[in-house]
Structures
1.
Amino acid sequence: MTIYPAIDILGGKCVRLTQGRYDDSTVYGDSPKETALRWQNGGAAWLHLVDLDGARAGKPVNTAAIEEILRSVKIPVELGGGVRTLADIDRLIGMGVSRVILGTSAVKSRQFVTDAVKKHGGKIAVGIDAKDGMAAVSGWEEVSELEAVRFAQTMEQCGVQTIIYTDIATDGMLTGPNLAAMEEMAASVGADVIASGGVGGAADVKHLIPTGVSGVIVGRALYTGNVSLEELLCLQSG
């Protein structure tokens, strides 16, 4: 299982939201680049970046901070938030992003996903952020009528090889991931499933391993010191 430290960027700073609410954010660092270097130097094999301003605006916003991270780290980076066009994808991959995460744009257009995968293959992932099992869009501020598992299966049919599945109710709460939802998702698709939301400590990651997910995104628990990256990497290798 791969551990993905999360770096969420809002107003150029490293923050964490609670249950996706923009009005409930905590700043954990003024320099996303320094945070990225911290996780890289701690042994992380990947970084998970989210342009929170971009997710709400519908276009990449924190490009300067993202470029600074990409120039500074040597490990691969996946990025989501505000990616709505093929030009956005081309630009991000050209900047050095290893995997671009489509969210709202994937919900709104299956053809867009198909075209993106046709051009960029495994560099395209789809983020499915679920509220009560239904996919949410626009920075989690709207809930669609798409059932999350069925939507994931549709994305797999489009050629998507990586699904990032977030349970909004647990995100940022440190109360444990939605294990049943993660297990159902992993069992329903052949694509790699990366779990996100609710990790409060090493035990939560340990409990995720039997669900079949290929990775887990950890945010607030790392920033608050509830768990160290070293602890999580020991689980990953074990």
2.
Amino acid sequence: MTDSNRKILDFGCGKRKRPGAIGIDRNPRSDADVLHDLNHFPYPFPDNHFDEIYCDNILEHLDDVVQVMIELHRITKPNGVVKVTVPFYPHRNANTDPTHKHWFGVHSFDYFVNGTSHGRNYS
């Protein structure tokens, strides 16, 4: 598959949507192609749809991180990739933003990865 055929989702894209990606956000002033409240499930995409999903500083703002990750797993193709960027809990900005609902440590996402010490099987 060529790069031009890859389906990429910019999850919570805001005003900085990745080039070539489909953006989803709840804010009508964002660069989103799809307007959707990311706290409401299911997301408006079919199973096994995306090759890559980027979550850049969005998960800390959502209500249910576990349900979001389950839903992202549903819409990601087998062997697809979900790339997550979140603030690291001891960083000063992680704890000063009043809109942050969650904090993340080094092993927070092990919960979602088979074969790690805390990994769960979501496949």
3.
Amino acid sequence: MTAPTLDQLPDHAEALPSLPEVVNYLIRALNDDNANLETLAHHINSDPAIVARLLAAANSVTAGLSKRVHSAGQAFLLLGADRIANIILASALIYRYDTHTSGFNARMLWQHSLGVATCARVLAEQTGVDPDLAFTSGLLHDIGQLLMHTASPSHFLQALDRHLNEDIPLFVAERSVFGYDHCDAGRILATAWKLPTDIIDAIAAHHEPDGFGSEIGNLIHVSECLSHALDLGELPSNRVPDLSELACANLGLSWPKFAAHFAEIEARFDDFRVSLGI
């Protein structure tokens, strides 16, 4: 059986669950100056699973204290809007798309994505890129892997096997099996989900940014490399991708600038993992 073509992927995108309502709101809010916490709280309270994760995250912060957090409103006051949004987005994606079959562990994929998102937020704060857009793009950058696995698990596992056993980048192994990679597939899925253009660009460009000329694509590419360098997510056979010097130059970043934030990135990543229970 041959692998599905890129043109056939939109049909397989329908097999994946749609994004939760609260995630759709958060992503739309990136480009909406009128977005507000009251509306966000309304969306949160409409999803009991997300409320449960949010309370767990808030109570992990207050561990050892006598006062417990019992409502989304209390969590907002304790954690702050930015952190709340990041926790909601990450927990909704991780627990909604937690596919675990032989050879493919989506939880590991999300741990890596959280590492990239954490790097992206810290670097965005240093470069003038919108930190919320950076975090969201980092968290979603590898969603193409979900679509490729859904479309043809056997072919995707074949690509994973080549990636691990031949010590080649996953996107190269995917191209040898499918004729395209998870950046292409991610662009298809992000378009089907009607995500903002900036996020689609970040997903499409994160391995080979030089041909795209996208600021957010450059940032997610650098964050991907940095996450691997710090081994965030503890991927098996971790391999640091080739870093685009052009992407770094366009962002005004250098390795000494990265190094100055290593400890902060690792601390934030550990904090997120504890908050999300992963």
4.
Amino acid sequence: MKRYRQYIMYALFLLFGLGCDEGKIYPDETVDSGRTATVSLSFIGLKAWPKENMLSLCAFGEDPLRPLQTQRISKPAEAGKKLKLRLNHLTPDTRSIEVAVISRGLRLIHSYYTSPVNDSDEPLDVSVGELDLASFKRVQAQVFDLNCLSCHGGGSGLAGQLDLRDDVAYTSLVNIKAPLSGEGKNYVTPGDLNNSFLLDILEDNPIHKDMFNSSGKQEVLALIQAWVSGGALDN
């Protein structure tokens, strides 16, 4: 009986074991992993690094305000340090790669750099260069456009005679006397935080000091302070 069982097992081995070769019967179904974007860049103005929001490498599609894919960027140890970032598995509907400040709800706040994406399947290699985080364009987008235009938007009776619309905000602020400053300060004095009334308004004025939550206010103040300290450039 024992030998009989051995014969049965040997027969089954021949039937099933030798009936299949060592290779796979069916070819691999290759999974489309998408394109890869490699981005080289560096940052200055690190004091303006976002605290509440996120500085991220993003892939955008047809919707210019909500990214398809994001990778949060870690703050470098020093300004000017060369970084190489990567986004993997880009989807076919990707239209641009951007270095941007986005909210925690994944909405675009400000884009520092945009590189269009074509329909090729080739990997992307993007050289950005140096980005100044304390740029006036970010101040405009994150602070003025989102919070200030209802009172400083160009209508009659501008608060403080200050117009913060995009096309006139810079010339309305820099080296312009603030009529409500008892000390005769400019709204913004390049390189001089103590003589920039804009910061007094945001820190001490009762109408403005509660405009942002705690972490949001820290981020806004750090951004404006870094911009003013860096020379209040129109960048």
